[in-house]
Amino acid sequence: MTTTSCTKANNGGCASKVNNGGCAFRGAKMALQPIVDAAHLVHGPVTCQGLSWDVRPTASSGPRLHRDTLVTDLGEMDIIHGGEERLAAAVEAVIAAREPAGVLVYQTCVPALIGDDVKAVCQRLTARFGRPILAVDVPGFTGGRDTGSNAAGDVLLDQLIGTREPERRTATDIVLIGEYNVAGEVWQAARLLSEMGIRVLASIPGDGRMGAIATAHRARAAIALCSQAMGGLAAKLEARYGIPFVQGSFYGMGNIATILRGIAALLATQGGPADLPARAEAMIARHQTMTQARLRPLRPLLTGKLALLLTGGVKTWSLADALREMGMAVAATTLRKSSTDDRRRAAAPAGRRALVGQRR
Ligand code: SF4
Description:
By secondary structure, the chain is α/β, with parallel strands linked by helices. It is built from 14 helices and 13 strands.
């Protein structure tokens, strides 16, 4: 049995005694908070709002709405009479004050237990305000962080993606899935893709925009940067809209080359320019030459050094590959949040040993 207790000690509301990654609400909010032009409104007591932007900052190229801490702050009278009116008033207030492109309403345990129907409220408010008000109905008691992260992808798939048409479409439009843009990684990837003539129609979720995500169903292909990102959103987009995807990483020269070759080949089969693979090869050669030159002074300092990687997911193998390219050896890596495929890749290189890691 999973037991949870409320504490502010981890700055994330309730800390599950089984999974110290936090509750499902926290997982959903972590996954969606990088959408920068949405208001992120927590429906619940203020103690649930422990997970603010400061805990897990993500970068934006424009709006900063995702950095605001917004909560309906339910009190005793709301628990007696219901919190739906308070929620509707809070949405109205945030729209009036901030003019967000949309609002993501996160359900928490208390309003879920007293029966607040956030989905119905959000549907009503979407019609009233003419912008997406999404119900992230994953209260903490439904599971741990992964439950929330998986549900976040379904929220976008079921309530946002497909609700708008792009102003223009190109034969090289892609959707980037699973990069959170903690340190501007989305921009690095988009710059390389743009150099090949590939347009990132939507990034989910890093530096994401509600309007762009709504058009993601028109992408010709997708890049999934993490096998488990947003509950396997890439595979679900393929199943629902026929958007094929490649999976890989933008860490390390070899991995970058692989993913660029993969998306170029995929787009060429989806009606994109036939010379995309050749463009990719030319660009990869150019950048690898430049990068090798910049790494040259560092090699004597790094060669032979031993690294222990405390990371998870796709980074278990991709960061290790990047370190090896700089002449380092990787003694071991943890395997938090790693899929079977991640584990296979992490275990493949000779001389590495994979450890079973703790879940965060
Ligand atoms: S949503 Fe539930 S489990 Fe999560 S912090 Fe709030 S009360 Fe705790």
